[in-house]
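User: Hi! I have a protein structure encoded as tokens and I'd like to know what sequence might fold into it. I'm fairly new to this, so please keep things simple.
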């Protein structure tokens, strides 16, 4: 983060290749192109680039007064999915008497090339431009295999013949790369794949992401690379199986099938008795919320595990369990406000394909949609180190059982009373968070559960009364203990 003196030095150095200035506050394309160019660092400076907003080309300040909304909108550029892979950037402002300066600081990408709306922007001296083929190759060669995520590493046993190149060329590529760039690109398909991190030129083989997305038979290399759907007649796995299906193959095709399956089979609209003269149609599960949960399972799972994603439907609920617990910076105490990507290349591809609308916001949207539909909040299970689970209750069954005074109101609380020994759903989330971090604070719990500090205190008091938790030590420096 630059201090005031450093900012002044950059403003007066009009020839710096690491700086771009603008007085505009709403030219999103210009901002994103600059961020993309600094991320690619084609000159290999290994130094951050800086976009100064509120500064003219001659270094003079425009008199800008930065609002919180403007700063928030600029910070959202990082995760809106138009710059892929996501840039490493920070946004802050510096006050000057002549006007504020907003600084967007961009670090060089670990895995270039970075694209904005399908175009690779780079710095050429003090200006930016679209990369040509030679410059794109330089960026591709900058990638480091050392420490790379699993999906970026080469699949040494595979070859180009293991990929559905027609699927890549005809379906994926036009969605990922700008049309005009594609028309001029006459390179072999290996280089086109490599530019999107699906092929490793040095090793002469596809990456794991390439096989998972476009492979003729991904399961040959990753035994658990499929989604196992089972529908049970009752409320546990011992009950009769009434339907099952295995979603397997390349993810480009599988994701489309899975999306259609959720809409046509899982959502299930039912007539529900409201009064003697009226019935209403209710959805068991909202399509977009369940799709988001399943897409997250596919995106974040551990593909080095031989276990599949389990998608189980019971009479009263859905359960999704995928191999691999929370990853990287994500922890039970900060989920879902903090996210991290075990498979960033897959995440990028799913954004390109339209299965991820925006990064880091999915779970919050899921909880809102489930609550509005009458399902109550999804319950996340962090207890098992090697898997991640989520449970969603059937809104129609809850309503028929009289567990909701109105659909979407108080259902989450009533569910807990039915299934958790008078522990509400919010309290189940609190217990899960405490199991993951015994020193978690009430404020952190409020963020995780999505309720006020006062409501958190009420729930903690209730859990103490029920004998579920107890406090060891003082309020500051003590810890929670789960009572079995």
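Assistant: Happy to help. Inverse folding works backwards from shape to sequence: for each of the 484 positions I chose a residue that suits the local structure. Here it is:
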């Amino acid at each position: 983060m630059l201090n005031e003196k450093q900012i002044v030095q950059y403003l007066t150095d009009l020839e710096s290749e690491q700086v771009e200035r603008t007085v505009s506050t709403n030219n999103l394309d210009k901002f994103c192109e600059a961020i993309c160019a600094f991320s690619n660092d084609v000159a290999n400076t290994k130094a951050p680039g800086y976009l100064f907003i509120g500064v003219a080309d001659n270094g003079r300040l425009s008199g800008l007064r930065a609002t919180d909304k403007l700063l928030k909108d600029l910070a959202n550029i990082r995760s809106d999915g138009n710059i892929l892979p996501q840039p490493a950037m920070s946004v802050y402002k510096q006050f000057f008497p002549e006007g504020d300066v907003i600084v967007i600081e961009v670090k060089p990408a670990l895995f270039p090339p970075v694209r904005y709306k399908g175009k690779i922007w780079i710095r050429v001296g003090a200006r930016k431009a679209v990369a040509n083929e030679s410059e794109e190759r330089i960026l591709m060669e900058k990638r480091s295999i050392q420490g790379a995520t699993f999906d970026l590493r080469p699949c040494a046993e595979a070859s180009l013949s293991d990929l559905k190149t027609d699927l890549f060329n005809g379906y994926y590529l036009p969605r990922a790369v700008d049309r005009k760039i594609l028309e001029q690109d006459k390179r072999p398909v290996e280089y086109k794949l490599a530019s999107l991190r699906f092929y490793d030129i040095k090793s002469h083989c596809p990456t794991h992401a390439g096989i998972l997305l476009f492979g003729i038979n991904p399961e040959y290399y990753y035994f658990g690379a499929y989604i196992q759907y089972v529908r049970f007649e009752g409320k546990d796995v011992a009950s009769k199986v009434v339907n099952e299906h295995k979603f397997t193959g390349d993810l480009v095709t599988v994701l489309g099938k899975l999306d259609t399956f959720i809409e046509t089979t899982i959502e299930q609209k039912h007539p529900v008795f409201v009064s003697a003269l009226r019935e209403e149609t209710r959805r068991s599960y909202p399509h977009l919320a369940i799709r988001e949960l399943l897409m997250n399972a596919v995106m974040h799972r551990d593909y080095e595990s031989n276990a599949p994603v389990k998608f189980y439907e019971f009479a009263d609920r859905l359960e999704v369990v995928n191999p691999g617990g929370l990853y990287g910076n994500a922890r039970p105490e900060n989920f879902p406000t903090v996210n991290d990507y075990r498979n960033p290349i897959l995440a990028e591809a799913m954004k390109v394909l339209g299965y991820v609308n925006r990064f880091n916001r999915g779970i919050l949207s899921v909880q809102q949609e489930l609550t509005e539909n009458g399902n109550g909040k999804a319950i996340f299970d962090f207890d098992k180190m090697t898997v991640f689970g989520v449970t969603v209750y059937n809104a129609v069954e809850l309503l028929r059982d009289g567990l909701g005074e109105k659909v979407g109101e108080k259902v989450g609380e009533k569910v807990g009373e039915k299934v958790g020994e008078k522990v509400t759903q919010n309290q189940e989330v609190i217990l899960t968070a405490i199991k993951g971090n015994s020193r978690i604070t009430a404020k952190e719990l409020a963020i995780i559960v999505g309720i006020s500090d006062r409501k958190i205190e009420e729930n903690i008091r209730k859990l103490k009364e029920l004998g579920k938790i107890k406090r060891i030590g003082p309020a500051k420096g003590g810890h929670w203990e789960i009572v079995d």
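A useful reference point when you look it over: Residues 226-419 form a domain with the Heat Shock Protein 90 fold (CATH 3.30.565.60). Feel free to ask if any position seems puzzling.
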